[in-house]
Amino acid sequence: MANETYVTVRGRLTSDPEMRFTPSGAGVANFTVASNSRKFDKNTNEWVNKEAKFWRCNAWNQGKLTLAENIAEGLKKGDAVIVYAEIETRSYTTKEGENRTVDELRVESIGKDLVFSKPSPQSGTQSQPPQQNQQSQPPANDPWSAGGNNGGWDQGAAPF
Predict the structure, then answer these.
(1) What percentage of the chain's residues is helix, strand, coil (to nearest 5)?
(2) Which residues is 110 bridged to in the sheet?
(3) Residues 114-126: pLDDT tens digits?
(4) How many C-alpha atoms does 84 have within 13 Å on its Cβ side?
(5) DSSP-assigned letters across all residues of 73-128
(6) DSSP assignment string, 127-145
(7) With contact defined as beta carbons under 8 Å apart, do 68 and 27 qualify?
(8) The overall pTM is greater than 0.70
(9) Residue 13 in contact with residue 76, Cβ under 8 Å?
(10) Which H helix or E strand runs over 69?
(11) How far apart are CA 108 and CA 84, in angstroms?
């Protein structure tokens, strides 16, 4: 456990997360995050998109922690996300007999990226704005309120 490589990736989900359960009952959510960075070109004075990188991600439920289920229920295609994950390298053999190696992300934490979008309220969790008092008056004994006795100072003569 000493040589893990963790990364933080910002991007968008390319499809809805797929929720599956292993025969032993462990839940896993699989999804892909597309990430493409931008670079400012000083010569043309414009932003240039770099080639997109597609990260295959898997998130597991761990005991009472339901990360996989939360992802499957709370995220959808196109959502901007920030993923903190461990890079895992997996080898496999294709049907044609070729040996391949792929890098995937084992998700530790994920959240919506609110830089370019507003949060969407979940049903039943929308907060109501506080009720505004029609006539908001400070308490009568508040020396810092406008008007009144000016906190014991002479008109316009602050002690500093």
Answers:
(1) 5, 40, 50
(2) 83
(3) 987 776 666 545 5
(4) 5
(5) HH--TT-EEEEEEEEEEEEEE-TTS-EEEEEEEEEEEEEE--SSSPPPPPTT-PPP
(6) PPPPPPPSS----TT-TTS
(7) yes
(8) no
(9) yes
(10) helix 67-74
(11) 6
CA distances from 89 to 8, 27, 30, 136 (A): 17, 21, 16, 62
Indicate the residue type of 5: T
Supply angle C-alpha 24, 28, 31, rounded to 5. Answer: 155
The string of pLDDT tens digits covering residues 87-110 is 999 999 999 999 999 999 999 999
Residue 82 · residue 110 · CB < 8 Å: yes
Tokens of 40: 């400012």
Of 123, 116, 105, 106, give the one whose Cα is nearest residue 12: 116
Name residue, tokens 């043309």.
44
